[in-house]
Amino acid sequence: MSRRKFLGGCGASSLAALPLLQCWGDAIYSAGATSGAAEGTLSLDSDWRFAGTVTPAALQPEFNDASFARIVLPHSVVPLSWHKWDPKTWEDRWVYRRAFSIPPRFRGLRIFLHFDRVVAGAVPVVNGHPLPDHLGGFLPFRYEITDLIREGDNLLAVAVDGRWLNAPPSGSAQGAASIDYMLPAGISGSVSLRVVPTVFISDVFAKHASVLDATRRLDVICRINAAHDSPVRLEAQLLEGELLLARDARSVTPDQPEQEVSLTLTGLDRVRLWSTQKPILYKLVITLLQDNHSLHRFTRQLGFRDARFEVDGFFLNGERLRIFGLNRHELYPYLGFAAPERLLRRDAETLRYRFNCNMVRCSHYPQSEAFLDACDEFGLMVWEEVPGWQYVGDATWQNLLVRDLEGMIRRDRSHPSIVIWGVRANETNNDPELYRRTRALAHSLDGSRPTSGTMAPWSRKNWQTEWHQDVFAYDDYHSAPDGSVGIDPPLRGVPYLITETVGQCTYGGEGMHNMYRRVGDPGLQQEQALYHAQAHNKAANFSRCAGVIAWCAFDYASLMNSYEGVKCPGIADVFRLPKPGAAFYLAQVDPAARAVIEPDFYWDSALGTPTGSARRAAIFSNCDRLEIFIGGTRHFVIHPDRDGFPHLLHPPFFVTFDAHLTGKPDLRIDGYVGSVQLLSRSFSADRSADRLWLEGDDQVLQTNGSDCTRLAFGAVDRFGVPRATMEGTVLLRVDGPATLVGDNPFCLSGTGGLGAVYVRSIAGKPGTVRIDAEHATLGRASVQLEIR
Questions:
Q1: What is the mean pLDDT of the segment spanning 18-45?
Q2: Which tens digit of pLDDT belongs to each residue from 193-218?
Q3: Domain 308-586 bears CATH identifier 3.20.20.80
Q4: Mean per-residue pLDDT, 231-252
Q5: For an engineered disulfide with 585, which of 355, 533, 603, 709 has Cβ 3.0 to 4.6 Å away?
Q6: Selecting from 3.60.15.10, 3.40.50.2300, 2.40.160.20, 2.60.120.260, what CATH number does the domain 12-196 have?
Q7: Alpha-helical segments (H) within 501-560
Q8: How far apart, in Å, are the Cα atoms of 218 and each of 20, 208, 308, 419, 674?
Q9: Percent of the chain whose pLDDT exceeds 90
Q10: 199-302 has which CATH code?
C-alpha cells in the first residue's frame, strides 16, 4: 500500500484482504473540527437524486437521473409515519446520485469521501469506480478518492443496501422481528468531501491524567498521515476562551504512512473540572506546521474529569454520585434514524434538564456525534455500546462487531461525557473468547474508561467464569413479593450498575409486556411513574450499587411486544411528549431551579376523580407540602412519603380522593416550601372549555433544507393540561418557505389526544413561516417561525 492511497470502510467481503484498522478506515476528522491553510470541507448534503432501483447503469456517470427524486440528507429511503412501519418497504437496494466539482484551490491536495452513517450497507461509486463495500449503519466510514477525482464534473453514486445483512445488529435468521428496534434504511447522516494536505492530522486522542492532583496533565496522542517524509512540527494548545493555558510542540519526520506523535500539556492547576452540574469545557487546538506555515489544524472541546466505578459505588471527581438515568433510542417518528442535529441535541437537553437525568445509555448502538457533543455541553454522562441485541453471529459478524467497537472508541474517546464502554452486544449469551477480545481492544485504545455489557438472567448464571468485563451491568426486571419493583442486591466484589428496569412490565400482574400507551389503561399509566420511583429508591438502598439507568426515555419503533409497530415503555411517547409516567423524573430537581407539581393521573372523568382503577393517586413534586383544593374547597394537606421512599431526593405524595365527589369540579394543587408558595396548578374536569394546543420547539431554522423543529399539538383543558383522550383530526396548513414532515391531517384518537409533526426548511429559501392548525371541536391555533 502506498502512502498516498488509502481506502477505508470495508465490508465483510474485504475483511480478509485488509487488516482490521484499515478496514475501519482512516480516522480523519474523527473527533473534532478542522481548519487550516491547505484544507477544507465540502458538504454534499444537498442536491441528491434518489430512486428505488439499483442497476449497474444507475451507478455510472453517464446515466440520466432526471426522473429521480431530489432529496436532502439525512434521508430515509421510504416515507414513514409515526407508527405501522413495515421493514419490507425498505429491505431492498436503493441508489443515490450526487454530482460535484472540486474548486481549483484544492488541486494537488488529498481528498477523502466521508459518510457519517448509512443504514445498513453501502457501495460508493466515484466516476464509475466502485469503492469497497461498507456494512453496518451507525459509525462513520471514509475513503481516499484523490486519484479518482477529475477536473470539472464528478459523479458520486451510492448503492444503499437496506436488506437484513450479516452485520451487527442484524444477521439473525429470524429477520427484523428478532431485534427490539427497527432499522429503516437510508443515508441517515451527512456526506462530505474532506480536503487535506499531503501530510495531515488524522486522529487526536486527548487523555487527561492525575485529574484530582495539582500535577494533572493532558496527554495528546496524534496520528499523522503522511504521503512523504518531509519534516513537520506539531503544536498543541489548550485554551479557555482566548486565554492560553498550556502548550507543547514537537518536530517529527514521518517515516511511515501512519505515525503516532505524543504531546504533553502540564501546568494545568487552574483547570476546573467537568461535572454534571458544571460541565466546563476547554478548547484543544492541534496545528501541523511545515516551514512555519500552518498546513492543518484540528480543534475540539474537552473536559477534565475523573469517573470511577468502584465496588462501593460510582465516583465523579472523587465524590460519590448516584447514577440516575434512562435508556435512549435514536429513532424518530417520520424520520427513522435520519434526524438533523437540532433534534438530536434536543433529546440530550430533554434528558438532562427536563427529566433531570445525570446519565443516558445509548441503547443499543453508537449514537450520533451531535448528541454526544450536546451531552458534553449539558453535563449528561453517557454509556455508549456496540450495536446488537441478544444475538452473536458467525466469525464475519464478530469481526464486524470488533471493527465497530474500534470505530466507536476512536471516534468518541475524547468526550468527557462518556464514562463507560459497552463492549458486549446487548443481553447476549456469554462468549468468553469474543468478549475477552473486545475488552482487550477497548483497554488498548482507551485505558481511561472501564468496560461493561448488559447481562440478562440467562447470561448472569455463570458470570464468575464467563464474564470478563470491569463493571457488572444487569437488566433487572423481576417483581418483589408484594408486587412492587424488585431490585437484586449487587454482586460481591465487583462494581455493579443496573442498566435496565421497569420497561413495559406490570409488576405483580399478569404478563411482562403491558404497554404504557397514552391511549391504554389509565390505571396502568398511573403505575408507571411509581414503578420508576420504586426502582430508583430500592437500588439506592444498596450503597454498593452505582445507580439505575431505567428503561426507557422514549417510545420507539419495534416489532416486539408492540402496538402497531410502536413499543411503549417510554416515560415519553415517540413524539418526546411526556406521559404520566414521566411525573417522577420531572420532579427530581431542586425547587430553587424550578418548582414542579405533576400528578400521575388525568383529572378527566365525569365525577372529577382520577381516571383509572385506583383512587389512591400519586402526585410528584419537589415541594415540602401540597394543599389540595376540589371545587375551590381545601380537602387535603399532604406531605411527601419519606417513609416509603427514604432514598429519593423528592418522594411522591399520596392522596385518596373521596368516593362521594360529584359533578365536574376543578382540582387545584398549591405547592409550598416552608411557608412560601412556589407553584399552583389547576386541572379541569369540564371538557366544554377544552381547546387546541399548538407549540413549536424553535422560532428560527436554518435554510439548509434539512433543519427542522417539532410542532406539537393536541387537546388541553382550559388550564393548558393535556387530556387523556380525544377523537377527531388536526388539519395543518403551512404558509411560507417550509414543509411539513408527518401525518397531515393527524388523527388524535390513536395517540391519546396529543401528537406532533416536524417543520422543515427549504434549501436556500429564507422567510417567515406560519402554521395554522384546526380541529372540528377544539378550534384553531397558529404559530410562526423564521427561516434564516
A1: 48
A2: 999 998 899 999 999 999 999 899 99
A3: yes
A4: 94
A5: 355
A6: 2.60.120.260
A7: 522-540
A8: 28, 4, 18, 17, 47
A9: 81
A10: 2.60.40.10
